[in-house]
Amino acid sequence: MSYPMPHFEIRPATPDDCALVMHFIRRLADYEKLLSEVVGTEDDVRRELFGDNAIVRAAIAYEDEAPVGFALYFFNFSTFLTRRGLYLEDLYIEPEYRGKGYGKALIQYLAREAAKNGCGRFEWVVLEWNKPAIGFYKKIGAQIMEDWRICRVAGDALQRLAQTGED
Prior knowledge:
Blueprint: E1 8-12, H1 18-31, H2 42-50, E2 56-63, E3 66-78, E4 83-93, H3 102-116, E5 121-123, H4 131-139, H5 155-163
């Protein structure tokens, strides 16, 4: 007996996908035990992905017609390479669809986007405790940059820093 193979596809997000993108953001945050930090809304997603000054993009993975995951990304710049780069902000695959190659397919999709746009690099960060993701990223050829640390100024600290030196 043979079973039909599911159809898998990755499509760029459209304005009609804003609720779905927000759903995946919440699912990812829950997985990372950071759900309480999600303050964005569907309207925020719409503005940032499709508004006049949009710089963020999203791709959605589908098995048959069921959305199974997403990637959220944007272009940054490397001063040393003097070329743009593609930065993967978030990647998420629903647990019941993991192990089917869909995460790798999304990474490959983004690698093609990077190559198509003349990027000199493709980067992302991974939580130190997320050993399954670290193992997956190493397996596909990613170099884990052990000597680099993320610096962040956000919320009230960002507002204070922005006002420093103002008269």
